[in-house]
Design goal:
A nine-stranded mixed beta sheet has the order 2-3-8-7-4-5-6-1-9. A hairpin with an 8-residue loop joins strand 7 and strand 8. About 15% of the residues have low confidence. The protein has one domain: Electron Transport, Fmn-binding Protein, Chain A (Pnp Oxidase, Chain A). The longest helix has 15 residues. It is α+β, with helices and mostly antiparallel strands. The relative contact order is 0.22. The protein has three helices and nine strands.
C-alpha cells in the first residue's frame, strides 16, 4: 500500500510533494504544474469538489516511469482527508517503483454522460476528473495499513442500483 500526501498545491489536479504539512483551507492553491493551461475556467480548486470526485470513484490509474518506459496501472484507492491510499501488492512493479520515491501521476475520472452529435467530430463527453502529481510514500506502519484498508473497503462498497419491481 502506498499513500500520497499533499503539500499545498492542488486543483482538479493535485500537487503532492514529499513532506506533508496539513493546511486546512476550503480551497487548494494551484502551482505552476497544476494550473490548467487549456480552458482554465473548467478547473476547480475547491477541496469539497475534489473530495466529492475522489469519494465517488473507486478505480484510479497510476502513471510512472519504470526502466525508462511509461507505465499506467489501474488499481483501487481510498481517501482519508488529504491522503490517497493506493492499493497494490508489495511484490508488484508499481509499488516497488513508487516506494523508491519516483514521480507519480494518479488520475480518477468519472464519466457523467456521452454527448452524441450528427457528426462524429462533434461527439463529446461530460466528465469530472482529478489528476494527482507527486511522490508516494510506502505505508510501513501496521495501524496505518489497517486504516488504509478500511478506506479501500468503504470507498469500494457501493450499493448497486436495483430497478423497482
Amino acid at each position: 500500500m502506498i499513500l500520497l500526501k499533499p503539500d499545498e498545491g492542488t486543483v482538479t489536479i493535485f500537487e503532492f510533494t514529499g513532506e506533508y504539512e496539513m493546511k486546512r483551507t476550503t480551497r487548494f492553491v494551484p502551482t505552476e504544474r497544476t494550473t490548467l493551461k487549456r480552458l482554465p475556467g473548467r478547473a476547480t480548486y475547491e477541496r469539497d469538489t475534489i473530495y466529492q470526485i475522489l469519494d465517488e470513484g473507486f478505480v484510479c490509474h497510476v502513471g510512472f516511469i519504470a526502466n525508462g518506459q511509461p507505465i499506467v496501472i489501474p488499481t483501487a484507492y481510498g481517501r482519508a482527508e488529504d491522503i490517497l491510499y493506493i492499493h497494490g501488492s508489495v511484490a508488484s512493479r508499481m509499488l516497488r517503483a513508487l516506494a523508491d520515491g519516483i514521480q507519480v501521476c494518479v488520475t480518477v475520472t468519472l464519466v457523467d454522460g456521452l454527448v452524441l452529435a450528427r457528426s462524429a467530430f462533434h461527439h463529446s463527453m461530460n466528465y469530472r476528473s482529478v489528476v494527482a502529481l507527486g511522490k508516494a510514500t510506502l505505508v510501513d506502519d501496521a495501524a496505518e495499513k489497517i486504516a488504509g484498508c478500511q478506506e479501500f473497503s468503504s470507498s469500494t462498497s457501493f450499493t448497486p442500483y436495483l430497478p423497482p419491481c
